[in-house]
Specification:
The structure holds two protein chains of two kinds. Chain A is built from 14 helices and two strands. Chain A starts with a helix and ends with a helix. Chain A has a single domain, classed as ABC transporter involved in vitamin B12 uptake, BtuC (Orthogonal Bundle). Chain B has two domains: 205 residues, Response regulator (Rossmann fold, 3-Layer(aba) Sandwich); 127 residues, Response regulator (Rossmann fold, 3-Layer(aba) Sandwich), CATH 3.40.50.2300. Chain B has 13 helices and 15 strands. Classes of the chains: A mainly alpha, B alpha/beta.
């Protein structure tokens, strides 16, 4: 009785300490502040723009969330994304059909993901190192393959639509994000594979002893992340109507930040995609507000870093209260 | 046509080499169309004369962008010219990545292998200075270009980034009448080039109280530049002109996607930007950092090894493209991607390169 009384006075209510809740509260607060400073922020034009740009991060975060839930990380996204996009562009410039080219890009991205899982699950090398190596490998492969000049390509209408099109006033990238996001939520919370992802992140040995082949779980997570990187690469090609070597440079840490801000535990085992959605939106909102408020790059980094640190401290409390 | 070009180039090269050989004191004047001393106080640089052929090494740092790839290709193309090849017995290119320590190790390796000159695009303006001094003491000539180093033990060759920013701003002022809202798209924060270009731009904008600016960072990358421009536009800003350091085809895309007319635009030398200006006719000024600076650096290295005196710090003139001299096949290209940097030549130096060949990597 004594302890429960103490709990009530010192700790915040449990639901408030959920990462997901915190991140959505933060999102609403940030948006309110932004709209108070500049009323244009609440305009549909601006919201649509944020959702469109957020979609690229959100799609990558689908795979990254699954990987991080298993307690791993995928650092091969930037060059996997670039390689897939350039592969697609090359095939198109050689006269292959748009669907063939898109399929090839998605397969290529998925194969890189599978390669990531081989290192992590079979050779037991931590993904932090292995996927970083794979990222460098993909960079080298891209440079050799293109002799560092991506192909000249007229981006076909379908790809253009995926990156910057609109249907009934809704950006197509946002629709892609909604579909991918819904799939992620179903997979994580309604399938056996989803439960295995959490289980492997909490205690891999226990999962293995209960008769699950943990290698297949890693394979699924990394393959998903590779697939999502390639999908984002295709969307980005449509968005900027070209492929170029620096395409992926923004997408190494930003999607990971979105996942963490959304309350997924970087050590694995807890969290989910619902949080990553708000995480992605917080990240694009911050980027947009800070740059249009004329805060210098260094200032932006400080705000960004501080938010992540404060959130991690809050989430740390959440973990304690759960135990 | 190729043959005629070759003949003219060979003749030009031999002619100037002979002239330089006979009258070394005229070396500066002879190259005035090609380059000049950085300032009035620039010291002269001389080096013990050596007999050709030489061993030359190109030490590159970063490799992950189009400009560096073009630069490396141009170096190889220049080396293949007959009048150059006969002066060089060994030419090597290596790239260390944007890692100062890796480049130091690479240069040490080059010194040990006995090269006569190192041509270098540095990973840091100061981090390599002591290594360069070691190279100079070991009798290795160092010519630093693009991302230049600060030591005077090396010859430095560059285009004037401050002046570039200033000319862009002059263009903006001219087209807005000194009054209006300007979108300023900067490069990578904290780099020397970004700071110089920005200071050059500010030196003009600050004189016009009617000019207001919104600054964003596009990282010289079209995707990023497109996103930050889209953010600025979506936040309700209207712009009367654009001053941009790079990623310009992305900036143009962002205006298009918002269904807005592209305002007068001062930017870098990307193919997609010039092609868009040609197609849509918005007023533009394009000044590109030339990837051909590497060929100029090799040319200077060869001439110094042969005993010529040059300024220690060399300024290569800016190459301006406006709506008036915009021409398909000459300074922008239908069959080359948007991300290609069109500055591949150094006018006035006999260093003209075929952009299509540079793009295809044909040396």
């Amino acid at each position: 009785m004594n302890t429960s009384a103490r709990k009530r006075t010192t700790a915040l209510p449990a639901w408030l300490l959920q990462g997901v809740t915190i991140s959505y509260i933060l999102l609403i607060v940030l948006f309110a502040i932004a709209a108070a400073i500049n009323p244009n922020y609440a305009s549909w034009a601006n919201i649509r723009n944020l959702l469109q740009i957020g979609a690229f991060i959100g799609v990558i975060a689908v795979g990254q969330t699954m990987v991080i839930i298993t307690g791993q990380i995928d650092l091969s996204v930037p060059w996997n994304l670039t390689f897939s996009a350039i592969l697609m562009a090359t095939l198109i410039s050689h006269g292959y059909g748009t669907t063939t080219a898109i399929t090839a890009a998605l397969i290529s991205g998925t194969l890189v993901g599978i390669f990531n899982s081989i290192g992590t699950a079979i050779f037991r090398i931590h993904s932090l190192v292995w996927t970083l190596g794979v990222n460098a490998l993909m960079q080298g492969a891209t440079l050799v393959y293109t002799h560092a000049q991506p192909p000249k390509v007229d981006v076909p209408p379908l790809v253009r639509a995926l990156g910057s099109g609109e249907l009934y006033g809704i950006p197509v990238p946002l629709m892609v994000w909604i579909v991918a996001g819904a799939a992620a939520l179903v997979v994580l919370h309604r399938t056996r594979f989803g439960r295995y992802l959490y289980a492997i992140g909490n205690n891999e040995s226990a999962l293995f002893l209960s008769g699950v082949d943990s290698r297949k779980v890693y394979l699924g997570a990394f393959a998903m992340s590779g697939f999502c990187a390639a999908l984002a690469g295709i969307m980005l090609t449509g968005y900027s109507s070209q492929t170029y070597l620096g395409m992926g440079s923004d997408y190494l840490l930003i999607p990971i930040a979105a996942v963490i801000i959304g309350g997924t535990n970087i050590m694995g085992g807890s969290g989910g995609y619902l949080g990553s959605i708000s995480g992605a939106l917080i990240v694009v909102l911050l980027q947009s507000v800070l740059s249009t408020m004329q805060i210098q790059e260094a200032g932006k980094d400080i705000v960004f870093g501080s938010i992540i640190i404060v959130l991690l401290l809050l989430y740390g409390r959440q973990k304690l209260s759960n135990h | 046509m190729k043959r005629r070009d070759l003949l003219i180039r060979a003749a030009g090269g031999m002619g100037s080499a002979m002239l330089l050989g006979a009258l070394p004191t005229l070396a500066w004047a002879d190259n005035s169309a090609c380059y000049s001393a950085w300032s009035g106080s620039t010291e002269s640089f001389s080096w013990p004369k050596k007999k050709p052929p030489y061993r030359i090494a190109l030490s590159n740092s970063y490799i992950g962008n189009e400009w560096r790839a073009e630069m490396v290709t141009i170096a190889k193309m220049y080396y293949q010219r007959p009048e150059v090849k006969k002066l060089i017995k060994d030419f090597r290119v290596s790239s260390a990545g944007n890692d100062v320590n890796a480049q130091i190790a690479q240069i040490n390796q080059m010194i040990l292998s006995g090269v006569d000159a190192i041509v270098m695009d540095a990973a840091s303006p100061t981090g390599l200075n002591s290594t360069i001094e070691r190279a100079a003491n070991a009798g290795v000539l160092v010519v630093s270009f693009d991302n230049v180093v600060t030591t005077d033990k090396a010859i430095t060759i560059n285009q004037d980034q401050f002046d570039m920013g200033k000319r862009w701003a002059d263009f903006v002022v001219k087209h807005t009448g000194g009054k209006g809202h300007v979108l300023v798209v900067r490069g990578v924060a904290g780099t020397f080039v970004d700071q110089q270009r920005y200071k050059g731009g500010r030196s003009v904008f600050d004189k016009h109280s009617g000019i207001t600016t919104t600054e964003v960072y596009g990282n010289w990358d079209s995707g990023t530049a497109q996103k930050v421009t889209a953010n600025a536009l979506a936040a309700g800003s209207d712009f009367d002109a654009v001053w941009s350091e790079g990623g310009d085809s992305g900036v143009v895309n962002a205006f298009r996607q918002r269904g807005k007319k592209v305002p007068p635009f001062a930017g870098e030398g990307e193919n997609g930007f010039r092609a868009a200006a040609a197609k849509e006719g918005f007023p533009m000024l394009s000044i590109g950092q030339s990837a051909g600076l590497v060929a100029l650096s090799m040319k200077v290295a060869l001439s110094v090894l042969q005993g010529d005196k040059v300024p220690q710090s060399i300024r290569s003139p800016l190459n301006l493209v406006t709506n008036d001299n915009l021409q398909e096949g000459k300074n922008y290209f239908k069959d080359i991607p948007d991300s290609f940097y069109n500055g591949v030549s150094v006018p006035g130096c006999g260093l003209d390169f075929d952009a299509v060949k540079v793009y295809k990597g044909i040396t």
